[in-house]
Amino acid sequence: MLFILILIPLLTAFLIAVAPREQARLVATIGSFIALGATLVAALPANFDWSRPGAYHMTDTVALVPELGISLSVGVDSVAMLLIILTAFLGPLCVLGSFTAINEKLRTYYAWLLILQAAMVGVFAARDLIFFYICFEFTLLPMYILISLYGSTNRKKAATKFFLYTFTGSIIALAGLVYTAWWNTTLATTLFDGAGTWTFDIATLALAAQQMSLTQQGWVLFAMLLGFAVKVPLFPVHTWLPLAHTEAPTAGSVILAGVLLKLGTYAIYRFVLGFVPDAVIEYAPVIAVLAIIGIVYAGLICWVQRDVKKLVAYSSVSHLGFCVLGLFALNEIGLSGSVLYMINHGLSTGALFFLIGMMYERYHTRSMDEIGGLARRMPIWSFFMGFFVMASVGLPGLNGFVSEFMCLLGTFQSGADGVGGTPGRLGPWFAFVAGTGMIIAAIYLLYMVGKVVFGPLKEPAGHHKHETLPHDLTYREVGILVPLAAACVFLGLWPTPVLNVIAPANQQLLAIYEQRLESWDALHHTELADAITVDAVIVVSGEEVTP
Fold first, then answer.
1. Any residues with CB less than 8 A from the CB of 70 and at least 6 apart, and which?
2. What is the pTM of this model?
3. Mean pLDDT across the stretch 443-454?
4. Which of 144, 259, 263, 517 is the most buried (most CB within 10 A)?
5. Where are the domains positioned within the chain?
6. Cα(527)–Cα(529) distance, rounded to whole angstroms?
7. Cα–Cα distance, 481 to 492 (Å, whole number)
């Protein structure tokens, strides 16, 4: 069934390419809704057991090069399934959101949009490393085309920078992954099933990587994290994102924020945490510091932005810092909060990009210096703008609050002493500094709302009304925003069903880290006690004495 979820968008893209130009929108709409329907059917409890810990469902394998262990292998757990649902959910909204924004090369645009959706589903469904990497890299091509052909004035530079940054990082990540496959061939065949052979099965390679020394795991961690951190993006390899977001068409920005960035966080969850636990424990504080720098630094950059789309783009760097921080808290609440944040960020930030695109279609500007007081002219648009800004800020009762709070709480508990503490390498100080990012986010997002939505009406000089769009939102545009708003309210008021299905997928991962963190803590405390004892003897006696 997973192959069907990948093939439906591909088949739709083919039909768009051969259909008459004026039918491209209709074919894309029908195909994207069929993909959403098939995904929801696949996710029904009758077809998918959400409660089985560490289990992969709908597994299927087609051998391609058996002697090298290369195959088309698919399977999903609850985390991957949730992200596939998010991808399918945003697909029809992006198609509908492009009806008036895209008027040239329609077949090219909608075909590549559907091909991009197929590649993203392939990333989440892959259980073979080669298949994963092909889909992971292939997402670059559709997004490059969407930005370079349908973006704003600086689109060529944005598309090239996006491609070069992410492709270079991915090549380095591939080196680390291939090294892991080679390492598996050096192991004794009796160690576990699949050891000592050439294979690219992800589950087998995870077992192999865990047999590496700390030094080996450290190098593999560096290689994988460099490639996947660019995709998130994590400071300091984030500089491609604001330009790509700003220049991309509206649907491109929505897909980029909603799903494409989550390929990086998902890959960290699946490969970095799953492959090299000893190195993760060793370097978790360093990675957490980079995430916190991104949270605060990008937030301060947002504070001085005048372009609202660039402001929301930089806010993604800040918000996804919380997501990475939750992953490296290495406890249940941090991991669950991080996975939930992947979904919540895609909903609220994707909606903000939709709203900015709707405003830009009418006024052809995104500058806060040229536009303001739109509550007088566009009250419905202004309501949704305020709503989704509150979701991004983390207002209690909306989706952003739950996931941010869980990421911070998991960070606070990680390695904290006393009641409520869990094994880990972070702690209260990491959470405290990261928490300032929530305050900064409230400042720049509410300031943006104050400038654009409230105050005296300000419209750019010489602006002309769109040929088909009224001042305020149309039924089509409201229909795009209402499902996103409903999802934000649902996940804000009742996130329990989603958290319950995330937990089983985390159990196997947490079991590895609980054992290794206890060993690390015991070793660390023993070394520290020995050092304190030796120092005390020297200070008291002035000579070397056996304790």
1. 64, 128, 130, 200
2. 0.90
3. 91
4. 259
5. 2-541
6. 5
7. 16
